[in-house]
C-alpha cells in the first residue's frame, strides 16, 4: 500500500486527492507549512502532493531555490515522488519545479480524476523525459568542466597555465598521482590550441609491449620484422598537425628513450625498417604518475630526455588537495550518469557529500567517478544514498563534528574518543599524501616506523591502497 502525504491548506484539493486514493492508499494530511518537514521526518511516504509555496518558501522562487528545496525533501525521504500543487497563474513556477526534479504538477482546482491520472502516468512520463535528455545531450557526454566553475585555488592555477600554454607548440609535461585527470587536461590543451581541428592521439606507453613500442610510435615498413605484412603509419605520423599524448612516459625502456630523444631533437623520424625521414609535426603532451627526477637519479630515465619533455611542467594536484571542487565533480559525474543510464537521480544525500569531503581519495578523481557509477547503478531513489557506497567511505572518515556524542559517558572518555578519531584521520590523510610510503609518513609524523606500523594495524589502515601503480604492480615500500 502506498503512503501519500497531502500538504496544502486548500480543503477542496485535499478532499479530492484523499477521495481518489481512499481504497488503494493510506493518505495523511498536513494543513500548515511548518508541519510539512516534521511529517516527513516522522514516517516514510511514497508520494507527496504539496503546495508550491510550502515547498519553496523563498520570495524569488527561482530554479536554484526550487531545486534546493526539493533536494532538502529528498534528503529526508530519498524515494519520495513529488507532485507540486499551484494556482493557474503560477504555472511557470510549476514548470520550473519539474525542470528541477519534481515528478509532476497539478493546478487548482484539483479533481480526483486528475490526481489519480497523474500517478498512473508518472513512470511513463519519467522514462520519456530521461530518454529525451539522453538524446539531446549524448554528444556532450564527455564535456570538460567549464574553467570558471572550479573553486580551488590550486586548480585555478593549473587551468591558468593550460590557457597560457595551449596556443603555443611547446612540449608539456603533466605530473601527478594516478587518477588526477592528466588525460583530461591533455585533451583540454589540444581543444584550446590552434591544432584543435587536427587529431588527438593518446598513447598509454605502459600498455604497449616492449617489442612493439617503436612500431606503435613511429610505424614500420612492410617486411621490417616477422608479421609486418604491410606498411603501417605510427602514432606520431597519424597525429601530424595535431597532438600526441604520451601517458605514463616513465615506463618506456632505455632504447625507446634514446629514439624518442632523437625525434625531439631532430624533429624527424623514420618508420622501423625505413630510411625516409618523416617530419615530426605533432605537438607532444607527456604525463607521468611517478617522479621522473627520482627515476633519473636511479639511472632508469635519461636526464636529457627529461629536459626535453619538461619544457612546460604542470603539476596536477590530488583530489584531497582540492576538496572545494568535489561537489562540482560529483555533479558533473551525476549529469553523465543520467545520460548513460535510463533513470533520473537528482543529487547526493548530504551524508555522502560529507563523507566525500573527509575521505583521503587514494584513487583521486577516477575513484570518485567509479564509486558514483556503482552507487548510481544500485540506487532506486531520487538521491544517491549512503547505503550504496562502500562502508570504508564512512568508517573513520566522517568529519569530527559529525561524530555522535554519548552524553552518558564522562568527559574524559569523550575526550579520548575524539583523540582517537582525530589521530586516525591524521594517519590516513598523511599516508595517502605520502603515497603509502611508511618511512616518509613516519618521518613527517615525527614518530618511528615501528610506532606507525602499530597505528596502521590498530586502525585497520591498509598502506597498499595508497601506493602508486606501475605496470599493474604496487611499487615497493621506500
UniProtKB/TrEMBL annotation:
GO molecular function list: ATP binding; DNA binding
Domain Sigma-54 factor interaction as annotated: residue spans: 151-377
PROSITE patterns recorded: RESPONSE_REGULATORY (PS50110), SIGMA54_INTERACT_1 (PS00675), SIGMA54_INTERACT_2 (PS00676), SIGMA54_INTERACT_3 (PS00688), SIGMA54_INTERACT_4 (PS50045)
Domain (Response regulatory) ranges: 3-123
GO BP, one annotated term: regulation of DNA-templated transcription
Matches recorded under Pfam families: AAA_lid_14 (PF25601), Sigma54_activat (PF00158)
InterPro entries noted in UniProt: AAA+_ATPase (IPR003593), AAA_lid_NorR (IPR058031), CheY-like_superfamily (IPR011006), Homeodomain-like_sf (IPR009057), P-loop_NTPase (IPR027417), Sig_transdc_resp-reg_receiver (IPR001789), Sigma_54_int (IPR002078), Sigma_54_int_dom_ATP-bd_1 (IPR025662)
SUPFAM superfamilies, per database record: CheY-like, Homeodomain-like, P-loop containing nucleoside triphosphate hydrolases
Residue list for modification 4-aspartylphosphate: 51
Keywords assigned by UniProt, alphabetized: ATP-binding, DNA-binding, Nucleotide-binding, Phosphoprotein, Transcription, Transcription regulation
PANTHER family given in the database record: SIGMA FACTOR, TRANSCRIPTIONAL REGULATORY PROTEIN
Protein name per the record: Fis family transcriptional regulator
